[in-house]
Specification:
The chain contains one helix and 19 strands. The chain is mostly beta strands. It has one helix spanning about 25-35; strands at about 1-5, 5-10, 40, 45-50, 55, 60, 65, 70, 75, 80-85, 85-90, 90-95, 100, 105, 110, 115, 120-125, 125-130, 135. The strands form four sheets. Strands 3-6-9-12-15-18 form a six-stranded parallel sheet. Strands 4-7-10-13-16-19 form a six-stranded parallel sheet, with no helix packed on it. A five-stranded parallel sheet has the order 5-8-11-14-17, with no helix packed on it. About 10% of the residues lie in helices and about 30% in strands. The radius of gyration is 18 Å and the shape is globular.
């Protein structure tokens, strides 16, 4: 037995479906499995303007706002997320407080308080960490400026 903070940790044998989420692809696979079991749910405080479309099994949490955007489920859009002129494709989870403008995302996990703006091309098969900002830059001299975590992979066109 391990004892930590007055809790006793005991081993258990798992008999159901299980994914070790230690790698990005494993996390995306787990996200896909969870989203594939969801049912549509739109919070009363969520806002979908007349230029937006929501297709399939989509969860829109409290104060989520869709402005001229398309969301194709299964997907979950967290609380206080704003999508403006965005396409969110299947198997995408966007955590609370994030903003996506003039961009497309599919089969990805976007963690809390991210800002993704004006990206040409679709972001897909990606895991984006908390408070990340992704945007085009016209600064000269033109260069890629990157801050990547351990074991990152980045493909640049």
């Amino acid at each position: 037995y391990l004892v930590a903070h007055d809790y006793i940790v005991q081993p258990h044998i798992l008999t159901g479906y299980w994914i070790d989420t230690g790698k990005m692809q494993d996390m995306l696979d787990a996200n896909r499995a969870i989203l594939g079991r969801m049912k549509r749910c739109v919070a009363a405080s969520a806002s979908i303007d007349e230029g937006s479309q929501v297709h399939g099994e989509v969860i829109l949490e409290e104060n989520a706002r869709l402005i001229n955007s398309i969301v194709r489920g299964p997907a979950i859009i967290g609380s206080n997320v704003t999508l403006s002129n965005a396409y969110i494709g299947p198997f995408t989870a966007i955590a609370q407080g994030s903003t996506v403008e003039n961009s497309e995302i599919e089969h990805s996990i976007i963690l809390e308080e991210c800002t993704i703006c004006d990206i040409d091309g679709r972001i897909e098969d990606s895991l984006i960490g908390r408070r990340t900002q992704i945007y085009p830059s016209s600064a000269k001299p033109r260069a890629y400026k990157l801050l990547l975590g351990d074991n990152s992979r980045l493909g640049i066109l």
